[in-house]
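queue> pop job 88
queue> type: inverse folding (structure -> sequence)
queue> payload:
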């Protein structure tokens, strides 16, 4: 491979790497796959072949952390990942989630009953064609089921060798603290972006305890402020896109952050991964920080 090809292949790693647990070293730009489904996160995507190309292109660009869930489709995203990558290239980590039922488009019902979580994990193993899921995340803590029962089910799956690490999604600092008295928590996936920093306290807790923080909705679905925002001015000055600046800001925000921008379009994958090349100065970061102040 020539030098330019090698650089292209390593693009995702230019944003740095981090460890999940103590054994999975991944590039700090991952791929979220919720968008590889139909409208309402329901059914097949409009272009399944393009969805498969999205996953393959991400890996070609050095992405080796892919985030999914049994509820995306449901089941659609997991099957697309397996079709795109199986047998999986060495070093690729596929993380999935369980804990939701999907009665219809845009409908999400929490189900943290142990029997459901165990069944959900078994289904994900089959669809992903894996013997073990490297990171299995509780999609939501079900308020109707004791946390000890939900995490106990995941602990059982861990003991059986069906999952390696356990993660949580959309939790408070208190919930995270309490969960860690039951099982070891490798990651937390909360909503977080330039324009939505409500999980700042959870991020700080993750930094203190060496827990990977995976911001979902990292680009706020492209709604990144007005035409003359500080973020857009930084992007124009650096000749990059606002989305790339928003992702670069996340990478600069904390060494435990692992953004997982999602898309159904190969061109957007290339753009998102290109954020790893965008180095922000302290002045750039201070300017982008003003985005939140101006939007509120």
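queue> result:
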């Amino acid at each position: 491979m020539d030098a330019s090809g090698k650089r292209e292949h390593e693009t995702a790693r230019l944003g740095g790497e981090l460890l999940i647990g103590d054994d999975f070293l991944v590039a700090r730009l991952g791929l979220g796959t919720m968008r590889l489904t139909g409208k309402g996160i329901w059914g097949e995507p409009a272009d399944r072949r393009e969805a498969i190309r999205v996953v393959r292109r991400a890996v070609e660009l050095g992405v080796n952390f892919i985030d999914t869930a049994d509820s995306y489709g449901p089941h659609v995203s997991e099957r697309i990942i397996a079709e795109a990558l199986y047998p999986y290239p060495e070093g690729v980590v596929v993380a999935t989630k369980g804990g939701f039922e999907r009665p219809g488009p845009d409908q999400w019902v929490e189900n943290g009953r142990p029997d459901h979580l165990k069944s959900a994990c078994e289904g994900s193993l089959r669809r992903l064609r894996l013997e073990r899921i490297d990171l299995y995340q509780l999609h939501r803590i079900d308020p109707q089921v004791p946390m000890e029962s939900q995490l106990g089910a995941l602990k059982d799956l861990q003991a059986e060798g069906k999952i390696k690490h356990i993660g949580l999604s959309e939790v408070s600092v208190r919930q995270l603290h309490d969960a860690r008295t039951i099982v070891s928590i490798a990651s937390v996936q909360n909503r977080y972006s330039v324009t939505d920093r409500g999980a700042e306290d959870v991020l700080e807790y993750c930094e203190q305890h060496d827990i990977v923080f995976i911001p979902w909705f990292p680009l706020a679905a492209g709604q990144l402020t007005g035409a003359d925002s500080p973020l857009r001015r930084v992007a124009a000055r650096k000749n990059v896109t606002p989305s790339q600046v928003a992702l670069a800001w996340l990478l600069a925000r904390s060494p435990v952050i692992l953004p997982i921008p999602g898309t159904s379009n190969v061109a957007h994958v290339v753009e998102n991964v290109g954020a790893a090349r965008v180095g922000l100065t302290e002045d750039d970061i201070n300017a982008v920080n003003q985005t939140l102040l101006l939007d509120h």
